[in-house]
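Quick one before lunch.
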Amino acid sequence: MSNPAPLRDSFGRVHDNLRISVTDRCNIRCFYCMPETDVHFVDRREILDFEEIERFARIAAGMGIAKIRVTGGEPLVRRDLPVLIRRLAAIPGIQDLALTTNGVLLADQAEALYEAGLRRLNVHIDTLDRERFFRITRRDDLPKVLAGLDAARRIGFSRIKLNAVAVKNLVEGDIVPLALYARENGFEVRYIEFMPLDAQNLWDRSRVLLADDIIAALSREISPLIPVPDPDPRAPATEYTYADGGGAVGFIASVSRPFCLNCNRLRLTADGKLRYCLFAIEEDDVKVLMRGGASDEDIAALVRRNVAGKWVGHEINSGKFVAPPRPMYSIGG
Ligand code: SAM
Ligand code: SF4
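Model of the iron/sulfur cluster complex:
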């Protein structure tokens, strides 16, 4: 099916970017995402299978989706993920396929993922300090993440990005060491302001380490940062380069510099719900349609309805903000 009309919402924003969560399960327990114990995972029968995910991606590609990011929960805990990657990479119209992972299983899987056609990786790492890694993730897996990054680089992934969640009074001491590690290894850090998507309602504005404070620290202690004129103004990260030529760094400043006006993203959760925003309260049920025998046209119509209903943006900075009922791991970051 091919429908060339762009997926435009009522504010004129064209959507070409789809995030697909392949599982809500995870092998670690970052406090800003998951509870420490008693995590309620969706029953496996409720998770979309590869046929369903591929079908949705093909329909979406026919509607102008050109970029797909596979995420989770932790996508590498999904069995046979490279099989899905190969199928997504082969969809006509998909120009960019990326994966976000915590890296714990990456050393084992990087080669198979690369062979399946994956070229872009974001690896989540907040700290190089083993004790702090444990405090954040409740698991002692930093060596595995570092081994995963090493393996990915050796296998040929280039421009690997490191996702670091910026939590105040916690990771200040990690900002510069992580940036230096990235510079030495040819990675690019993206500092992500802590967002109100944790499972235990721990978020508070006072716990957000702001992009401006990180920029000041990096400029002071490594090299001044120069803003990069953005080649894609719809990308969420604001990019900077170091004045000394030592690479680039990005900021996803959802709290201090919301980028909703440029949003081009849709999200499919692991249990088959379509969301027009990380913070959306409403969602549309793709799985029920698919399992009820709906045609591709029916599903495309659902996608159009979802996009048409998209709100102008999250309200984190206003009194109107309501945290979504799903935490980050169950939406797909
Ligand atoms: N498990 C993978 C990982 O950790 O990269 C993929 C899923 S995770 C939900 C995607 C990204 O969300 C992570 O890289 C992490 O940086 C980010 N994240 C999780 N909780 C967050 C929060 N409350 N605020 C900001 N970013 C968060
Ligand atoms: Fe797992 Fe990623 Fe959530 Fe951390 S941020 S608990 S690695 S899903």
